[in-house]
Write a structure and sequence with these properties.
Length: 372
C-alpha cells in the first residue's frame, strides 16, 4: 500500500532547507513511485498523473499544498542524495525479500545512455545492480561514470548486501580476487565467469576441463547436468560439467574459497543451423550438485532479460533525457523498484507494459501491485 512507501522512506534525508517547504518529501516519493509504476516516464507526466489521481492520493497522503509541479519534482530529485535514497530502497526490498526467500544474486551493470551532459562535462551514468531472479527484485545498486569502474563499484555494492547463504554470480568483469574474498567473507558463495580478463587462468581451466570432458570424466570426478528445451522450431541443449579438483591450480590460494571449476555448453539448433558455445567459470561451491550450479549460471542471464531489457522496452529508460544533478540516478532506482513490484504481481497475465497501463487505469490494481 501507499502507507508502505511512507513507512520505508520516512527517514529519507530532505535536501531542502527547513524554510519554504511546501510539499512533504515522503508525499513526493510516494507520488513518483506510483506514477512510474503507472506509466509516467518524465517529470511532466508525473505531475499530470498526480493531478489526475489527486483524489486518490488525498486519502493516504497529506498534500498540504496539493500536487507538486514538474519543476518541483525535478528540482528535489536532482538534489536528493542517492545514498540516502538507496538506504530506504534497500530497506523496502529487504522486507520484500524476507517474505519470499531466494538467495541467488546476479550482479551486472547497465548504462543510462542519455544521462550524459556535455555542457556540464558529465559522463553517462553506469548503474551496477544486484538482482535476485527468485524474488524479481533489485537488492541494491551503485552508480559509476564508466563501465570500466564496475571493478571498483562491485566490492562497495557487496558491502551493502546481506550475503549470508547467498550464491553470487558475476560476469567476467567481476572475476577478481578481491571480489571473491568479499563474497566469502560475507558468508556467501560465488560463481564467476572466466574470460580474457584472466587469460592465463581461463586457458588453464579450459584445457583441464576440455580434457576431462573428452575422456568422459575418467580423468576427473566430474559432476554433470543436462537440460533440453524447445519451442518455435528451436532446440536448446544445455550441459554443465563441474570438477571439484582444484589442487592442481597453482594460484588457488589467491582465490579465497575456490572449490570447483565449471564448464557450461549451450547447443542451439534452429532449422538447419547448429551453434555451440562453451563457457568456463570458477566457484566456491563444492560441485556436488551440478544441477544447482547449472541453475545459478543460467539464472545470471535473467538480469539481462528480466531487468535490463524490461527497463529499456517497458520503461523506455534509454530514451529518458532526465540528467540534472542526481535525478537520473534516483529515478533509475525507482524504476527498478517499480519493475520488481510489477513482476511480483501475478494475477494479471499480461506483460510489464500492459501492467503499467492497467495500474494507471485501475486504482484497485495499483494497490495490488504496491502490496505485491
Amino acid at each position: 500500500m501507499v502507507a508502505t512507501i511512507l513507512e520505508h522512506f520516512s527517514d529519507l534525508e530532505d535536501p531542502r532547507g527547513r524554510e519554504g517547504r511546501l510539499h512533504y518529501l515522503s508525499d513526493m516519493v510516494a507520488i513518483v513511485c506510483c506514477a512510474v509504476i503507472c506509466g509516467a516516464d518524465e517529470w511532466t507526466e508525473i505531475e499530470t498523473f498526480g493531478k489526475a489521481k489527486e483524489a486518490f492520493f488525498r486519502k493516504v497522503l497529506s498534500l498540504p499544498h496539493g500536487i507538486p509541479s514538474h519543476d518541483t519534482f525535478g528540482r528535489v530529485f536532482s538534489a536528493l542524495r542517492p545514498e540516502s535514497l538507496e538506504r530506504c530502497f534497500m530497506s523496502w526490498t529487504q522486507a520484500l525479500a524476507e517474505q519470499s526467500g531466494g538467495r541467488l544474486i546476479a550482479i551486472d551493470g547497465k548504462t543510462l545512455r542519455r544521462s550524459f551532459d556535455r555542457a556540464a562535462g558529465k559522463a553517462a551514468i553506469h548503474m551496477v545492480s544486484a538482482w535476485s531472479s527468485d524474488n524479481a527484485l533489485v537488492f541494491g545498486q551503485l552508480a559509476t561514470e564508466a563501465k570500466s569502474n564496475e571493478i571498483t563499484a562491485i566490492p562497495k555494492l557487496l558491502e551493502l548486501l546481506d550475503l549470508q547463504g547467498a550464491t553470487v554470480t558475476i560476469d567476467a568483469e567481476g572475476c577478481q580476487k578481491e571480489i571473491a574474498r568479499k563474497i566469502v567473507d560475507g558468508g556467501g558463495d560465488y560463481v564467476l565467469a572466466l574470460k580474457a580478463n584472466q587469460p592465463t587462468m581461463q586457458e588453464e581451466v579450459r584445457l583441464f576441463l576440455d580434457d576431462a570432458i573428452a575422456r568422459g570424466g575418467k580423468a576427473s570426478a566430474l559432476g554433470f547436468h543436462q537440460s533440453i528445451e524447445g519451442d518455435h522450431g528451436r532446440i536448446e541443449t544445455r550441459r554443465a560439467w563441474v570438477s571439484p579438483e582444484v589442487g592442481w591450480f597453482e594460484d588457488r590460494e589467491q582465490w579465497k574459497g575456490l572449490r570447483s571449476f565449471i564448464a557450461v555448453e549451450c547447443e542451439r539448433i534452429v532449422g538447419e543451423k547448429t551453434s555451440c558455445e562453451r563457457r568456463y567459470f570458477i566457484s566456491s561451491l563444492t560441485g556436488s550438485d551440478a544441477e544447482a550450479i547449472a541453475h545459478a549460471v543460467r539464472s545470471h542471464w535473467s538480469i539481462e532479460n528480466s531487468l535490463h531489457w524490461c527497463l529499456d522496452v517497458a520503461f523506455r529508460e534509454d530514451m529518458s533525457r532526465i540528467r540534472q544533478g542526481h535525478a537520473a540516478e534516483n529515478l533509475s532506482r525507482i524504476r527498478r523498484l517499480g519493475l520488481g513490484m510489477l513482476k511480483r504481481e501475478t494475477s494479471a497475465k499480461i506483460g510489464i507494459k500492459g501492467k503499467r497501463l492497467r495500474a494507471g487505469w485501475d486504482e484497485a490494481y495499483l494497490l495490488r501491485v504496491l502490496a505485491a
